[in-house]
Amino acid sequence: MVAEGALAAGCHFFAGYPITPASEIYEVMVRELPGRGGLALSAPDEISSLCYCVGASLRGLKAMTATSGPGWALMIETVQYALMSETPVVIALVQRLGPSTGGATQGAQGDIFLAEFCTSGGYTVPVFAPSNAAECYELTRQAFNWSERLRTPVVLLSDKEVGMTTEIIDEAALAKAANVERTWGDAGAPVAAYDIERVEDVPCFGPAGGEVKVTVTGSAHDRQGRLRKPSPEVVELLAHLQRKIEAHAADMAMVRSDLDPEASCLLVSYGITARAARQAVGMLRKEGFPISFLQIQTLFPVPTEALHRAAAGIRTVFVAEENLTGQYRAVLAPLLNGRRLLGINKIGSMISPTEIVRAIRRAGGTIPRCDWPGEHPSEAEVREPPRPWKAGV
Amino acid sequence: MENTTYLAADAKLPYCRGCGHALVVRQLSRALEGLALPSRSLVLTTDIGCVGLADSLFPYVHTVHTTHGRSTAMAIGMALANAVLPASGLKPIVMIGDGGAMIGLLHLVHAAQLNVDITVLVHNNFLFGMTGGQHSAFTPLDWSTSTTPEGNRVPPLDLLALLRAAHAGFLARQFATDGDLNAVIADAIAYPGFSLVEILEICTGYGGLKNKSKGAALREVADSQGYSIGRTEAERPRPTFAQLYRIDIESKAAPLLIKEGSGVVDLRVDDAAHHPLPPPPAEEGSQPQGREESRPASLQHAASANSRLEIRDSKPLHIVIAGTAGERVQSSAALLCRAALSAGLYATQKNDNPVTQGSGFSLSEICLSPQPIQYTGMESADAVIAVSQDGWNELKANGTLAALASGTLLIIDSEIEIDSPTGRLLRQPFRRDATPKRAALAAIGFWLGNEPVVPNAAWDSVLDSLSIERRADVSEALRIGANFARQGDARAA
Fold first, then answer.
1. B100 FRET partner, CA 20 to 30 A, in A366, B230, B255, B405?
2. CATH 3.40.50.970 location in chain A
3. Across the interface, which of B60, B79, B265 has its CB nearest the CB of A169?
4. What pTM did the predictor assign?
5. Complex confidence, ipTM
6. Range of the domain at B435
7. B222 within a domain of the structure (yes/no)
8. What is the pLDDT of residues A7-53, one digit of tens each?
9. Other beta carbons less than 10 A from residue B486's beta carbon
10. Are the beta carbons of A124 and A245 closer than 8 angstroms?
């Protein structure tokens, strides 16, 4: 469905390198793109895959590649180039169990940090996380739209369980966002580079090979795209790369919230674990346990407004995710000041709804408590944040 | 009138006095003047290093300044786009040094293999000049550099020999001081496919100080490394990848349909099949007259058949089918999911197999539910089907059997050796009677005969979508399974 979303979004170029669990996207694109006037081909490694995509995007084609953690590690150099050179490109990152080669056929949500914090300078890379086949389609289209609109790389972060589970979906019910194209420059302009009026503006795009002279660079540059040592103009352009993302953060925010005004407990999740979490919420409510639920689709930029809305009146926030250290929980921690923040974490297999229910119950659920349950190695662990907290806060 | 200006007339070359880069830049400009190519049909793709400063010298040509070694790869992407863009004809000229050639060696090899229409100018000054004269993969033996103070002990790379093995069509090695370098560069650019010119030159800042390399000495260096000077060109140029791709596209008819069992959700399923739910199909006299209109067909069927196994709204049904790789376990499971779809159910399917996909076990975990499925895992299976010893062994190994509730239905091929399973055990010779490749489908047919979760009519649309051959195959397998079930019922009666 990632491939279907990409095709619907107008993707015309795909370069791939086989890696479980992302190979199916590659195979579908190779099968489908030629018949739709696009080009899909095999690259000799992941570095090449993304470079080919960036090259094609510089010509004006919407481009995508798909990989998993080990391949993503190789792509990070070129992700930064795309970010700096303001070249739209979408990377479907289908997570598997890490680190290193890890477990090719086991799902995981362990690449949150690696996906987001991959740039020198710490720029915000938009990361969208689908939880099922329908969202794969919808969020892939969104990923293309935002990548084109903001001229920046966007990561579509799924995992093996989302990417390789075949499921029935209702095509008619799919959200079909209108395609957004990058803003092309005036054909009569003298040059196409990085000219902007306000720091958060997105410069107009000119294709390499077009009538307007194009100057592209991954080095610190001025508005003409000329390599320059830091001057106020160069520094402003560096800030612009971040400001253009921040200026659109609110529009980019995608969440699915299911809030209960009576709840003092909020469960936050994303990707594959959001499905178990949603089911767990149903189970808890059936037992008369008031609880709010927030599925975050736009992991980055963090949808702070939606988070604050969901956390209003909440005492305890649980973040369920399939990694050991609570990566997204760590991202949310500074935004949930004063609230008790607990993680529900596990690796090796999906966190089940029962495990989430049990973890919430054991942690005292909606009633904050001081006593702490012992660790239970066979199931999802409830983990405290590293900072101390007071009961009843 | 097309713009055919290249090197800016007033260009101030940012290179050290005597640096070969300055010569190359001028010779490139002369080559382009000779070819009179429109400047907008060219893109200079420059690498990291002093060579990367060339961009600003060519104010009318498109320029893309990349990361180290990746200039070739980005140029490949730009050239590949020619295959699908209506206004094709952008020619990338890649300018890299010996450092970029080595760190991006894979890209050069693939560019040669693909035969993409790019021209690479390798400015080989035998070391890393911009960073202080460190040794590179192209440093001649015994050369003294800042990182080989005792002399280089590693033989330099013969790039042309390597790229010849990668089927490069046009290769040349010249000195930056050669008067006819512009002609060689022009021929390389005009060559229809991958071309590369390795230009031997001197880094006056670091190369020439410690090593004999000026003037005639540079030729001695080349000779001592066994480098041939001059060009080699393929007798008959191969078609470029873009040309071949265009031919492939034109020979292609309509887009291919998504293949069965490919793991791709088929979007072309008739919506009416599940939203809204279709009326239940007429089953040979088994349907009761008064139906609950709001329930899916399959549920009515299941309820009407007084099945012991019922899909309740809150609890999805989990079935595990295990067998041997290559025996159509996963594709059979996919057919069951599609039949369930026709019956108005939601379904998910997860497959598993060993790392080598063509041997050992093959397994599918299916979840069927009248509601959209949230959690796709299972805590314990509601029915287990094993059609080979490999499959059974895997069910034991992965904990599926240990997690079963007592009374779970186990459908096991008669050939499988089993030890004390818990559950309701039903054994039939699926492999013997239906053949191993149809055993999974026969077992599914048998299961549905026992637990009619998916009505027979739901298979019609699935069968219709298959090729005639496959349809006969599937029907026969399901029939064999259903017969086993009927015989079982007859015995029970």
1. B230
2. 2-173
3. B265
4. 0.88
5. 0.92
6. 298-492
7. yes
8. 999 999 999 999 999 999 999 999 999 999 999 999 999 999 999 99
9. 12
10. yes
